[in-house]
Design goal:
The complex is a heterodimer of chains A (324) and B (337).
Chain A (H helix, E strand, L loop, with lengths): L6 E12 L9 E13 L4 E5 L6 H8 L7 E6 L2 E2 L5 H9 L1 E4 L13 H5 L1 H6 L4 H14 L16 H13 L5 E5 L7 H18 L2 E5 L3 H5 L4 E6 L2 E7 H6 L4 H9 L39 H5 L5 E4 L2 E3 L7
Parallel strand pairs in A: 3-8, 3-9, 6-7, 7-8
Antiparallel strand pairs in A: 1-2, 1-4, 4-5, 9-10, 10-12, 11-12
Chain B lengths: L12 E12 L6 E12 L3 E6 L5 H9 L6 E10 L2 E2 L5 H7 L4 E4 L3 H4 L6 H13 L3 H14 L5 H4 L9 H13 L5 E5 L7 H18 L2 E5 L3 H7 L2 E6 L2 E7 H6 L4 H9 L48 E4 L2 E3 L5 H7 L1
Helix pairs in contact in B: 4-5, 4-7, 5-7, 7-8
Classes of the chains: A alpha/beta (324), B alpha/beta (337).
The structure holds adenosine-5'-triphosphate (ATP) (2 copies), iron/sulfur cluster (2 copies) and magnesium ion (2 copies).
One iron/sulfur cluster binds next to loops of chain B.
Chain lengths: 324, 337
């Protein structure tokens, strides 16, 4: 998987400096994303999971250059994003869109739906107003809303409908990649399924790639082809989904899966015991970052950082266990 | 009013809610957010309440505790706790009751903890209020409570401020405060929704263990059916201000009697199985201004037929402790009895 890759991410890092800007000694560094690499093929969906604060949203924002990386490379369609500027950068950006978690906060309450949906086209300046209008109705119908929605305002829609509007807007410029940051987390279970089905249909129809960020492992399973598990700024395991769910190798992945409450009353879950809480990304533990909570940690884990390596075809793990 | 609703009474009821109605806004044009619900909680029972966002779960909890926001009021019904009519208690007696025999924890522990006081100050205050302990004795009891909720090194944590703790630790502190009064009923409104699965599992395990140890009842509000299956013994399903189903959890999961419950259970994405499409419930809850006549679920229900529009279906018994509000099973019921 190299030549055809849509996205190639190598050793990507983002460090945030926090604290007083005057007192240098008080300044601290948040290692939000600390050297991650992965590829994404056209039409493929990569799920990104992990606990709160592990850096998922930061990865998403780095990929569409909402923020600049501290280090590392992102290649889109084999072109290094860092070297792009002006027209070229805009052209690439057009092909990467973003869908946010909050279907309430992300739509301007004073704009009509058809203006919201075609806002990215206005910025492009390539269509007349009537053309834009036609396009908006096409987009709304694509996401299962009626043309009558065009002249209404966001407050007239339910959470699930607003998320559809957000998806329509993301589709406006015919992107190839959509970064979806917790797109269904704020929705009711009964509505979640509608939106996931819609996203799966659009993916097939339009050959879209998604980076699908979520903390819900069951939701990710239904949309992703491969899944990456993050812990404290690093990818600890990356595998095709059925591999990851049926043969998880990293102790953290196993702990996550074991903690999901199964919706079967007669089948008690037995969560794996993890010590303590997730450590701060300001001073991540030395060696394996998971060693403070890992039930299998041994000496080597405290001093040497395990690298992400292929343990089976397409299945990458960063753990010293069974690493020889 | 519909036929007198009968609660599926567990062996000994600690809390009895009867025809509770809670309204919002102007009294000449009120919005009914809890619409005549009746249910019981047994004295040692774990009950879960689930339902669509806005269906009235939090308003039900706040009504029981009489902690409603200013815009809301209880317009009818009865809340009987341990033989006492809570709606008839004076404000000051009620204040001692909520936070005393009935305690509550919320989704976001940060907003319920005061950022300028230490953990010890806040647990200590509750201990002084409910147990009359002060000074060193209160501090010792606070450390005991922190240890009980499995906060590591409680002697050190007690002098920390809320912002110095993780979300999971803050929720443990809230549970410690709630337990300080040795409540008979703990109401937990989405206590783990803001937490990660690994921490959620620990907190639920802790609540279950404490519930069994102290013989408390727990009313848990959640939208996660996995949590319901793992935690609760009985579940109540709410839709648009009404209870549509009330049943033992294993019974409701195996044999849901209300199409909304059935739809909810079908929409859960399985964790270890590939399915082509997820099954969803079509449409969404109609706004209060456009609520259909008769059954409120009928605009989304696959089984709807003309009689569903005629009247709001009352809750009916479908078996031991199993109630549902749907006329689809009328024939079924006849067969059973
Ligand atoms: N602009 C910023 N300045 C400083 N720190 C930041 C900034 N943005 C994010 N962080 C920190 O970086 C880390 C990763 O944050 P990020 O939002 O990427 O996590 P996440 O995995 O998306 O979490 P969640 O599941 O809670 O959304 C966190 O510790 C966060 O506090
Ligand atoms: N403070 C308030 N002022 C006005 N209306 C409110 C207030 N709180 C809740 N409501 C309304 O009351 C109804 C019931 O709300 P409630 O908070 O009980 O729902 P819920 O079932 O707890 O939902 P969720 O799952 O989103 O927490 C909703 O229509 C809501 O919009
Ligand atoms: S490297 Fe060691 S500490 Fe890290 S996950 Fe593997 S066994 Fe656990
Ligand atoms: S009463 Fe009718 S519309 Fe309502 S849930 Fe039952 S079958 Fe569906
Ligand atoms: Mg995030
Ligand atoms: Mg609520």
């Amino acid at each position: 998987m190299t030549a055809g890759d849509l996205l190639q991410v190598r050793d990507l890092k983002k460090h945030f400096s926090i604290g007083s800007s005057l007192l240098k000694s008080r300044r601290q560094t948040v290692h939000a994303v600390d050297g991650i690499s992965f590829d994404l093929a056209p039409g493929e969906t990569l799920g990104l999971v992990g606990e709160s604060g592990c850096g998922k949203s930061t990865v998403g924002r780095l990929l569409v250059r909402l923020i600049e990386p501290t280090e590392g490379s992102v290649r889109f369609d084999r072109r290094e994003m860092r070297t792009l500027a002006g027209h070229d950068l805009r052209a690439v950006r057009k092909q990467c869109q973003f869908i946010f978690q909050d279907p309430y906060g992300s739509l301007d309450p004073r704009m009509r739906i058809w203006d919201i949906v075609t806002e990215p086209i206005v910025i492009e300046g390539t269509m007349t107003r009537p053309q834009r209008r036609t396009r908006s109705i096409e987009l709304l119908e694509k996401v299962g809303l009626s043309a009558a929605a065009a002249d209404r305002y966001p407050h007239e829609f339910s959470g699930g409908q607003r998320q559809r509007i957000g998806i329509a807007r993301a589709l406006a410029l015919n992107p190839r990649l959509i970064i979806c940051d917790e797109p269904v987390s704020a929705l009711d279970v009964s509505i979640q399924a509608q939106v996931i089905n819609l996203m799966a249909d659009l993916k097939k129809e339009l050959q879209l790639s998604y980076l699908f960020i979520s903390h819900n492992l069951a939701v990710v399973r239904h949309i992703a082809d491969r899944v990456a598990v993050m812990y404290l700024g690093k990818i600890v395991e990356l595998a095709p989904k059925s591999e990851l769910y049926h043969r998880p190798q990293h102790p953290y992945t196993r702990a996550l899966l074991s903690a999901v409450p199964v919706p079967e009353p007669d089948q008690p879950t037995e969560p794996m015991e993890l010590h303590g809480d997730i450590p701060s990304p300001i001073n991540p533990p030395a060696g394996c970052r998971f060693h403070t909570r890992c039930p299998f940690a041994f000496d080597r884990c405290r001093s040497e950082e395990p690298i992400l390596r292929e343990s089976r075809a397409g299945h990458q793990v960063a753990c010293h266990l069974d690493a020889g | 009013m519909t036929a007198m609703t009968e609660a599926a009474t567990p062996m000994s009821s600690l809390l009895k809610v009867r025809d509770l109605r809670t309204e919002l806004g102007k009294s000449d044009n009120p919005l009914t957010v809890v619409d005549g619900i009746s249910f019981d909680i047994g004295s040692n029972e774990r009950l879960a309440v689930v339902g669509e966002s806005g269906s009235g779960k939090t308003m039900t909890a706040l009504s029981i505790l009489r902690l409603l926001p200013d815009a809301a009021r209880i317009s009818a019904g009865e809340v009987n706790f341990n033989g006492q009519d809570l709606l008839a208690l004076s404000r000051s007696r009620m204040r001692r009751m909520s936070g005393g025999d009935i305690a509550m924890i919320f989704q976001e522990p940060m907003s319920s903890l005061n950022p300028v006081f230490t953990v010890g100050d806040q647990i200590g205050e509750a201990i002084t209020l409910h147990q009359g302990l002060r000074g060193r004795a209160a501090r010792a009891r606070a450390i005991e409570l922190l240890a009980l909720v499995k906060v590591p090194s409680p002697e050190r944590r007690i002098d920390q401020y809320p912002h110095e703790l993780s979300g999971g630790m803050r929720q443990r502190v809230m549970i410690a405060i709630a337990l300080s009064s040795q409540p008979k009923l703990l109401i937990a409104d989405e206590p783990t929704t803001a937490l990660d699965v690994t921490v959620q599992a620990q907190i639920l395990q802790l609540l279950k263990q404490l519930q069994q140890e102290f013989g408390m009842a727990i009313l848990l509000i959640t939208h996660d059916l996995g949590v319901v299956a793992q935690f609760a013994q009985r579940m109540i399903v709410m839709y648009a201000g009404k209870i549509v189903e009330d049943a033992p959890v294993s019974e409701a999961f195996r044999r849901p009697m209300h199409p909304y419950t059935e739809g909810l259970l079908r929409s859960i994405p399985p964790l270890y199985e590939d399915v082509d499409r997820l099954l969803a419930i079509d449409g969404s809850v109609p706004p209060p201004t456009a609520m259909p006549s008769g059954c409120r679920f009928r605009t989304r229900c696959d089984y709807a037929r003309p009689p569903c529009a005629a009247q709001i279906p009352p809750l009916k018994l479908f078996g031991e402790g199993h109630r549902a509000a749907c006329i689809r099973h009328d024939d079924y019921e006849v067969r059973r009895t």
